[in-house]
Amino acid sequence: MTETDSTPLKRTPLHAAHLQVGARMVPFGGWDMPVQYAGVKAEHEAVRTGAGVFDVSHMGEFRISGPDALRFLQFATPNDVSKLKPGRAHYNWLPNDRGGLVDDIYIYMVAENEYLMVVNASNIDKDWAHLNALSSGYDVKLANESDQWALLAVQGPKAAAMLQPFSDTDLSAKKKNAYFPAHLFGLEVRLARTGYTGEDGFEVFVDAQHAPKLWGELLNAGITPAGLGARDTLRLEAGFPLYGHEFGGDIHPLSSHYTWVVKDKEFYGRAALQQAPTQKLIGLKLDKVPVREGYPVKAGGKVVGRVTSGTTSPTLGHPIAMALVEAASAEAEAFEVEVRGKDHAATRVEVPFYKST
Amino acid sequence: MTNTPTDLKYAASHEWLADDGTVGISDYAQEQLGDVVYVELPEVGREVKAGEAVAVVESVKTASDIYAPASGTIIAVNEELSGNPEKVNESPYKGGWLFQMEVTEEGDLLDAAAYEAQAH
Fold first, then answer.
1. How much is the average pLDDT of A290-317?
2. Which are the contacts of A160, defined by CB distance < 8 A and separation ≥ 6?
3. Do residue A50 and residue A177 come from a single domain?
4. DSSP secondary-structure letter at A248?
């Protein structure tokens, strides 16, 4: 999560609020973001057992509207956008034409002919250019609203119960992937029952100018501030790929367990995705030594791939990793990961590593 | 505020060295690292040079090299860290010590005041 280029870092509307509660800030995707407050393990635990709040305002929001909005999104993405109804959301991709991804995204259907797309912070400019290039010939309007919205993710098994007293909407009636306008602490917000932690929870879209008030109220309500460090350990335990690690412009996304994203329809980049992937994304567990991105993965003494993400799982208490390995070796049970010149035994395990109960 | 005992010497790279050759990392360093989940220690008997990478402390997020603050021989390692690496966070100057050396020559070390001035 460190970067060396010298472009000034962007700040979310909550930058000052993070510093106020003792956040340690790091550069991430061009943004100065909180990596931790009290500590990654404590924040991770709060989200697995109670509720935590993440500032994910760095993510991008594009509004896509007009008579051809659906037809355009059906062309730009492999999941079936026609299955969405107003007030529903789904996970989706923006494939490129060489068998990789421009980004992985979420699409929220706001109304007939109107959709909101949430994209990764570091890909905003690239996605924007890509979508605009693809949209010629479609009667759609694209609006980059990334600076207008703050996005706060309230995640954890107690998220709904802790938010309920402060909302006029019956949150328990809202299913996973619901998207709806609501009031929270008297503020007008859009809520989505979505997240990136493997727990129940809500993502709250709020006008950027009201973000500090919302953040303050959430902390007052007893919700734990959580940083990018915990966000990464939580998503890794839950087996969620992260763009730039498990996904990328030159990584075949069907190497992963997300094969369900691609539906039987025409879309941009389909031909390249129909080439079978030469690699497979697997889960590994180790006894003690944490393994990190880029470490070589071996089977039978020969390098067959590399670690894409790895950490010591706070919930499980042992190191876990995702790795891209040659498809021919992906069924093996026993691997080794090379750590500082020494091979350490790793066992292939099912992804996700952790499922909430 | 972090704690910097005055009876220890410090390397600019955040290791401390005690008079008896015990080595650990400073309170400031453990706080910067965050939750320590794994510590890789050198072999007892290994001869090391001041400034040489001899151990690795891994937090949830990253792996950090630990450099020998002196030249000499490793004579003991803190075996307890293998089961309880969090000791490095909880007690960086006592229970979280990393290894002990027989020192032949110290590297460039700072006293507590000079270390604090450069670390903060």
1. 97
2. A171, A172, A200, A201, A202
3. yes
4. B
Q: Is residue B12 domain-resident?
A: no
pLDDT at B84 over 90: yes
Total domain count, chain A: 3
Give strand ranges (E) for A1-73.
24-28, 31-36, 52-55, 60-65
Chain A residues with beta carbon closer than 8 angstroms to that of B34: 36, 39-40, 229
Q: Residue B53: give the domain boundaries.
A: 17-119
Q: Is there a domain that residue A4 lies in?
A: no
A227 at the B interface (CB within 8 A)? no
What's the CA gap between A255 and A214, in Å, rounded?
39
Closest by Cα among A18, A16, A45 to A34: A18
Name the burial class of residue B73, with classes exposed (0-12), middle (13-18) and buried (19+) by CB atoms within 10 angstroms of its CB: middle
Q: Please indicate whether, in this complex, the C-beta atoms of A340 and B40 are within 8 angstroms of each other.
A: yes
Two tokens at A203?
Answer: 């993502």
Sign of CA dihedral A207, A212, A217, A218: positive
Quick one: which of A282, A262, A285, A283 has its CA closest to A274? A262
Whether A302 is in a domain gets the answer yes
Q: Does A342 touch chain B (CB under 8 A)?
A: no
**CA angle at B24 for the pair B23 and B27, rounded to the nearest 5°:** 145
Decide: A212 and A152 in contact? Cβ < 8 Å. Answer: no
3 state SS of A331:
coil
Domain membership of residue A39 as a residue range: 15-55+148-237
Per residue in A74-100, pLDDT (tens digit) is: 999 999 999 999 999 999 999 999 999
pLDDT band at A2 (very low <50, low <70, confident <90, very high): very low
